[in-house]
């Protein structure tokens, strides 16, 4: 079992920034892949960004150039840096680890 704890969400004005954190209960290098997903009202859950244990990343087109995913093995944490936020980025952001483990999510609200 892997538990994931997300943090860093909140309310921000359009154009602002937030940094989300995903902290797993096991050693981060032992997890092959971690992804950030978001679920917005009236929309299907979508993958936002993914990072592999070797550091390779993938970013959704909708956030490319604004969001960055990174991992810090020393802090055992995966980060999602979100810049130039837009109201349509509002939603619950959750991380998913290889094996199908989900966190509870953190709410991000971007006001116009």
Question: Could you characterize the architecture of this molecule?
Answer:
By secondary structure, this protein is an all-beta fold. It is 0% helix and 53% strand. It contains no helices and 11 strands. The strands form 2 sheets. Strands 2, 4, 5, 6, 9, 10 and 11 form a 7-stranded mixed β-sheet that branches. A 4-stranded antiparallel β-sheet has the order 1-3-8-7, with no helix packed on it. A hairpin with a 6-residue loop joins strand 4 (33-39) and strand 5 (46-52). It is globular. It starts with a strand and ends with a strand. The relative contact order is 0.32. The mean pLDDT is 97.
In short:
The chain is mainly beta and 112 residues long. The chain is 0% helix and 53% strand.
Report the average pLDDT across residues: 97
In percent, how helical is the residue content? under 10%
Question: How many individual helices?
Answer: 0
Total DSSP E strands? 11
Helix and strand sequence: EEEEEEEEEEE
Rg measurement, Å = 13 Å
State the low-pLDDT regions, or none: none
Strand residue content: over 45%
Q: Please report the distance between the alpha carbons of the first and last residues.
A: 40 Å
Bulk shape: globular
Structural class: mainly beta
Q: How would you sum up the major sheet?
A: 7 strands, mixed
Question: How do the helices and strands line up, and which of them pair or pack?
Answer:
Blueprint: E1 4-7, E2 10-13, E3 18-24, E4 33-39, E5 46-52, E6 57-59, E7 67-72, E8 77-82, E9 91-97, E10 101-102, E11 106-111
Parallel strand pairs: 2-11
Antiparallel strand pairs: 1-3, 3-8, 4-5, 4-9, 5-6, 7-8, 9-10, 9-11
């Amino acid at each position: 079992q892997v538990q994931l704890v997300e943090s860093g969400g909140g309310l921000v004005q359009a154009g602002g920034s937030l940094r989300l954190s995903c902290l797993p209960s096991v050693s981060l290098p032992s997890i092959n892949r971690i992804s950030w997903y978001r679920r917005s009202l009236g929309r299907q859950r979508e993958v936002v960004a993914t990072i592999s244990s070797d550091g390779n990343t993938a970013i959704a087109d909708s956030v490319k150039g604004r969001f960055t995913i990174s991992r810090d093995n020393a802090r055992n944490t995966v980060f999602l840096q979100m810049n130039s936020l837009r109201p349509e980025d509002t939603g619950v952001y959750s991380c998913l680890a290889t094996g199908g483990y989900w966190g509870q999510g953190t709410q991000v609200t971007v006001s116009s």
